[in-house]
Amino acid sequence: MNTTAQAGRSACEIGPRMRFGSRSLSVHLLRGAAGLGLLGLGLWGFVVVGWPALLLIPPAGLLLKGCPMCWTQGLFETLAWRAAARAAKAPPGRN
Predict the structure, then answer these.
(1) Mind listing the pLDDT tens digit for each residue in 66-81?
(2) Which residues lie below 8 Å from residue 8, measured CB to CB, with a gap of 6+?
(3) Terminal Cα distance for the chain, rounded
(4) DSSP state, 91?
(5) Confidence category of residue 7, pLDDT binned at 50, 70, 90
(6) 34, 63 in Cβ contact below 8 A?
(7) All structural domains of the chain with their residue ranges
(8) What is residue 49's DSSP assignment?
(9) Residue 95 DSSP label
(10) pTM higher than 0.85 for the full model?
């Protein structure tokens, strides 16, 4: 049953929610750069400063939505979401 709230939305907006992806590719890439930067600083800082540098690792995990592999999976989800949105906006009959 199609409600009026769902009438104007594309198929990818009605479908399942993304687990690790973002709505915007640029936001996802910025989150990845910041998360990997904090992760690298935390690990490098542990060697130089000691344990206080490890306090940078939890914010890195929040930015990456888990680990670097989770971020990579989210990148593929974001790209698939964008492809589905483009396909939903394409006029019928185009291949």
Answers:
(1) 889 999 999 999 998 8
(2) none
(3) 29
(4) P
(5) very low
(6) yes
(7) 22-86
(8) T
(9) -
(10) no
Which DSSP string corresponds to 9-48? S-HHHHSPPPSS--S-HHHHHHHHHHHHHHHHHHHHHHHH
Q: Which of 15-29, 34-48, 78-92 has the highest mean pLDDT?
A: 34-48
Q: Which tokens sit at 85?
A: 């949105």
Q: What is the distance between the alpha carbons of residues 76 and 81, in angstroms, rounded to a whole number?
A: 8
- The pLDDT tens digits for 32-61 are 999 999 999 999 999 999 999 999 999 999
| HEC-encoded secondary structure of 61-82 | HHHHCCCHHHHHHHHHHHHHHH
State both tokens at 37: 């930067």
Report whether 71 contacts 34 (CB < 8 A): no
The two tokens of residue 81 are 């979401």
